[in-house]
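We store sequence with structure; for instance:
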Amino acid sequence: MAQSRKKRVLEQVERQRRLRTILTFTIVAVLIAIIVVAIIFLPRPMPNPVNLPGYLSHCVTGSLYHSHPTLVVTISGVGQTIPVTFDGSCAQPIHTHDSSGVLHVETDQDINYTLGDWFLLWGHAVSNANTAILNSTQIFTYKTGSGHTLNLTVNGSPDVNPGDFKDRNPANIQNLYFPRNAGSGQTCVVSPCVTWNMVLTYS
């Protein structure tokens, strides 16, 4: 009788052990399945649609020159907000610290940066390929023609020295070189400090 009771108790203990083992494996399998489903189906951040060339994605570690041109962009009479793009973990060669339109051209590379470079960085900062568009016939999604024009002035004048353009063609406003000694109230590294206020107007 005692032997039979002992046998039943041992069988019951063994069954409980098997059930616990099955339950543990089931829970582990369910958790693994949940993790796999989450990895496969949960939304991931979209890649940035604006790819930057190496000289713009470069993290600046020194200062070969430091310039502060200003930019105002107006679309059909509406001023466009210049984004804050400064990233302390990777300072890009052209960036902003506020929305005033002061562009900080700060670099450790012997490169002449252009207005088109800033638009690429702007588009990258807001993850919008349309915002990266600037050429002689289009800004953002706005195209010239049918009564619409795109004009650039520097220091109030439409006559910009062609030497300030990469391809010596003033019609290609995206190729306008930023000077290396432009200031807008800040101290210039290079002397003399010249005013360099750019206004882009689409109307």
